[in-house]
## 1
Amino acid sequence: MITLVLGGARSGKSEVGERLAGTLGPDVTYVATAVIDPTDDDFAARIEKHRDRRPPSWVTVEVGADLPAVLAELSGPVLVDSLGTWVAACADTGDPDTGDPDPDALCHALAQRTGDTVVVSEEVGLGVHPSSDAGRRFRDVLGTLNRAVADVADEVLLVVAGRVLPLARP
C-alpha cells in the first residue's frame, strides 16, 4: 500500500505521515531526504523536531538524489519525508540535462516495493506565486512529481491546518 500525504508549510503533514507509519508496525524505516547540513537555525530546529518524534525502534536512512534506488532495496514499512527536499537534493545531482528528479524511477520503485510506504510531500501549488525562476521551477517540478506519485498511490491525503482530508481519484 502506498499512501501520499500532502500539505503546506506547518500543516502537520509530517506528523500525519508519522502516525500512519506508526500503525504499520514497530520496525519502520524512516527515509530522510534532507541530508544537507542545515544552513540556518530554523531548518536545523525542524530537523531536530522530526528526529525527536521518531520511536527508538525506527531506523533512519538519509538519502539524496538516489531515493528510487534506496527504496528498491528496502523491505518492510517505510516513511519517506519528504519529496520537496528530494527535489531540492536533485537540483545538483538529478537528470544531467535538467537537474530534475525522475518521477518514473520513483514511481516504479514505489510500485515494486513489497512493504507499505507512506510518502510525505509539500503541496506548493496553493500558495503565493514564486517571485523567481528557481521558485517557479521548483513548484512546477514538485507539482508534477506529486501528481505522478498520486497516480500510483492507493490513498492520497491532504493535510490542511492539522486536518486530514482524503482525496478521491478523478
Note: The chain has a mean pLDDT of 90.
## 2
Amino acid sequence: MSLLMNGNEWRTATGKGVTVAVIDSGIDASHPELAGRVLESFEARLVEKRVVFESSEAGDSAGHGTACAGIIAKIAPDVKFSSIKVLGAGGLGDGHAFLSGLEWAIKQKHKVINLSLGTTKPQFFAPLHDLLDRAYQAGCIVVAAANNLPQPSFPSVFSSSLISVIKSEETDPLNFGFQFGEVIELTAPGVNVRTAWPGGGHKNLTGNSFACPQIAGVIALLLETRPEMTPFEVKSALYSIAKENAGIQD
C-alpha cells in the first residue's frame, strides 16, 4: 500500500483541492448540496458545422449530471466541479459533441474526468480510443460507466487507458470491488442510490451511470492525499483497496 502513503489516510480525506470534470447533461449549481462547488460550466454548441464550447448558465437539462455530481460530493464533500454539458433534454446527445467534450476536458488537463455516458456506434471506436490514449498520456484519470444494456459501449471497454465501472448492490462507496479478468474492472454502488436532483430535490436511481461517480469520488480522496498520482498509480491503488475490501492477501 505504499501508493497510499500511510495506508488508510485517504479514508479521512474530503477531496479538498481536487476538481472533477463531469461530462454530462450539465449541473444544477444552485442545488444546496452543490452550491459553491461548480467552478465553471461549459456547453457544447454547433457553430458552422463545428462543435465549440462556450460558458453557459443553462444548468442541467436532464438531471443526470446533477445526480452524478451529487454522488461525488457526498463522498468528497470539499471537491469542486467543472461542468461540461454535451447532453440535452432526456439525456440525449450527439456523438460528436461527446467526443468534443472529452477532448475539451483533456486539453484543459482536468485531473479527474467522470464519463457516465458512452456510445455503441462503431464509428466512434477509433477516435475515442485515440482520445483516451491522449488522456492517459496527459495524466487525466478518466472514469467511465459500463453500458446498462448487454453490449459493449465505448469508451468503457478501453480498460487499459481508463477506469471502467459497473454497478453492484453494495451500499458503502468505499467498499468497492474488482472483477479480476473482466473488461469492466471495478464494481461500485449503483442500485437505488439516493442523490441530488435539479430544483433542490433528490431521487433514488439505479444504473451503471451512478456507480461511475462513486469511484470518481474515491479518486478525489486519493488525490487529496497524493495529488501527484498518475493514472497508473491511481488504478493500482484502487486495485489494492479492492483486494483489501475482498479480504484477498497478496
Note: The first helix runs from residue 64 to 75.
